[in-house]
Design brief:
The protein is 27% helix and 29% strand. With 568 residues, it is of the alpha+beta class. Helix 1 packs across helix 12 and helix 2 packs antiparallel against helix 6. Bound molecules: adenosine-5'-triphosphate and magnesium ion.
Length: 568
């Protein structure tokens, strides 16, 4: 039997008004539809209907994970400092890690992810190549003290995640495990009814060799992705592109350098407004500190720096905005008035588009002054030239030369090919056929279960409320009872349909208007309205949430129709 509830006794606190603090549609609707409530910043409770959605997503994930042979377990949320010291992440992870002490003053953290715990387990339990490969996974609350918790469960500080970890004998084996997870992930997001793209991604604090993100495309997405019709996709943080070869206009005359006063004008917007010049002829001069000393990056005023490109070009792993002193020392001027002229070329990394610029503008490396008519290489030299700016609309795909499209996305899943990063740090080794000790090759794979619920709403809603993809709706069917005289037939249908479907029976003593509004708001796929029409000619009105279409059917016809609609 499936799940049946009468609404009169069901905890579904819907709201007529939008909650004040919610600024994206999924957050608003999750609160209004009685799915979540806030406890504190970034901390939410999942109410019964919200939890049902999450459980349905969880079930889909579990089926797909089990089908690739992964084994479900449960790890501890509390983790001792020692483990995180071994991996080096106690310091590296920074303030996002929730740290606490026990009564004996020993340090612990609340797990934001479980590489340490699982690698320790593998290290102590696995000894022979015969025990490899294997994958373990769990569903668990994760804790991250996010700098900007927002958008409800989309970016929370406590959230529900599925995390999986694979252990292999060889890199080839690990690639196979990775491919299996990618296939499983594609099935999962498809079955959840989501429009998504798989993109190349940065590995961040988890680390490893390479990674892919699974992005639900939505206007409110926090990420930006570049997609090509050839199938290529990458997060704009690292998306490569082919530069269009534009001919430089040889008729443009290089003018004489000129210094102009720009009192208190530091940003490109300020100066370009003040001088009435377009931001595309400005040279943005960014000074960074790295573990190898300072670097100066030049990009066009209307472009954005791709920090990953700069890191790669300079061969560094840390980038921090330089302080005033460093800027003064390197450029001879204060922050806000930097430019390439007079700076030691050894430090300068330039985006190619900057070097093509004719009669450009930059800071003069002195307070309240800018220079006009800067030309390369007449006026300055550089150490390195190449792409440094972020991808933008119209750039060409690196693999096929097609035009890239930029979209916004919500990251719902992330797969990492870790290699030996954790097995090496935590000594997870096995002996091979020849008796030689080798480190296990790992992958890790996360899905934001609660984030999927929010992402699904971003993609599927209308002015009246949520339009759940049927597979993850809290209920399949709502019986909307109008009037007392239809009690018997409602009861009958509640029982019969409840054999096969999750049914909510709105038996409340409320006006039809209130009942219709709630059913639309909560987004249940099929509404069956049982009122006068039934009493007069035994017909039931059936409405579909996704299309808004309705039809009148006899009770006997309904079952077949539901099978078509709900795919059960
Ligand atoms: P993001 O870039 O969004 O911070 P992440 O790269 O830190 O994500 P992972 O460490 O790969 O995320 O975690 C796996 C999955 O957990 C993510 O793909 C995402 O769906 C989910 N997730 C991560 N952080 C949060 C959060 N603060 N709230 C809800 N879900 C989250
Ligand atoms: Mg994060």
């Amino acid at each position: 039997m499936k799940y049946r509830r009468k609404l009169s006794g069901y905890f579904l606190p819907t709201l007529k008004e939008d909650p004040r603090e919610a600024d994206i549609v999924s957050h608003r609707l999750m609160v209004r539809a009685g799915l979540i409530r806030k406890i504190s910043s970034g901390i939410y409770e999942l109410l019964p209907a919200g939890w049902r959605v999450v459980r349905k997503i969880e079930k889909i994930i579990r089926e797909e994970m089990d089908s690739i042979g992964a084994q479900e377990m449960m790890m501890s949320a509390l983790q001792p400092r020692g483990l995180w010291e071994e991996s080096g992440r106690w310091n590296e992870y920074g303030p996002e890690l929730f740290r606490l002490k026990d009564r004996k003053k020993r340090d612990f953290c609340l797990g934001p992810t479980h590489e340490e715990v699982i690698t320790k387990l593998a290290a102590s339990e696995i000894s022979s190549y015969k025990e490899l490969p294997f994958t373990l996974y769990q569903f668990q609350m994760k804790f991250r003290d996010e700098i900007r918790p927002r958008f409800g469960v989309m970016r929370a500080r406590e959230f529900y995640m599925k995390d999986a970890y694979s252990f292999d004998y060889s890199m080839d084996g690990c690639r196979k495990s990775y491919e299996n997870h990618v296939d499983a992930y594609k099935n999962i997001f498809k079955r959840c009814g989501l429009d998504f793209a798989m993109v190349e991604a940065a590995t961040g604090s988890i680390g490893g060799k390479y990674s892919h993100e699974f992005m639900v495309t939505a206007d409110n997405g926090e990420d930006e992705i570049a997609l090509c019709s050839c199938g290529f996709g990458a997060n704009s943080e690292l998306a490569p592109y082919r530069i269009r070869e534009e001919k430089t206009d040889s008729s443009v005359k290089q003018k004489r350098l000129e210094k102009v006063k720009t009192p208190r004008m530091r940003t490109v917007e300020e100066v370009s407004g003040y001088l009435s010049l377009g931001s595309e002829i400005f040279i943005k001069t960014l000074v960074y500190d790295t573990e190898k000393g300072p670097v100066v990056a030049l990009i066009k005023g209307d472009d954005e720096l791709n920090e990953n490109f700069l890191k790669e070009a300079a061969g560094v792993s840390e980038l921090k905005m330089a302080d005033e002193e460093t800027i003064q020392e390197l450029t001879g001027g204060p922050p806000g008035f930097s430019g390439p002229l007079g700076v030691n070329p050894e430090y300068i990394f330039a985006d190619r588009d900057v070097l093509r610029m004719e009669n450009g503008v930059s800071g003069a490396n002195e307070k309240d002054a800018h220079l006009l008519n800067i030309n390369y290489p007449r006026d300055y030299k550089v150490n390195w030239k190449g792409p440094l700016r972020k991808v933008k609309t119209g750039d060409l795909c690196q693999s096929c030369g097609g035009v890239l499209e930029l979209k916004r996305g919500i990251e719902v899943g992330h797969t990492f090919l870790l290699g030996k990063k954790y097995s090496s740090a935590l000594n997870a080794v096995f002996t091979d056929e020849k008796g030689i000790s080798r480190e296990m090759i790992m992958g890790c794979y996360g899905i934001g279960v609660t984030r999927i619920a929010a992402a699904a709403i971003e993609q599927h809603h209308d002015k009246d409320g949520i339009v759940w993809p049927p597979a993850i709706a809290p209920f399949d069917v709502v019986l909307i009872q109008l009037g007392k005289k239809t009690s018997d037939i409602c009861k009958e249908m509640y029982k019969e349909l409840g054999e096969k479907y999750d049914v909510l029976w709105d038996d409340r003593d409320e006006t039809p208007g209130v009942k219709f509004k709630d059913a639309l708001l909560v987004g249940i796929p099929v509404h069956i309205i049982i009122g006068k029409k039934y009493l007069s000619d035994k017909k039931l009105e059936i409405q579909y949430r996704n299309t808004g279409e309705k039809e009148f059917l006899h009770k006997e016809e309904i079952e077949e129709r539901l099978g078509d609609i709900l795919g059960k």
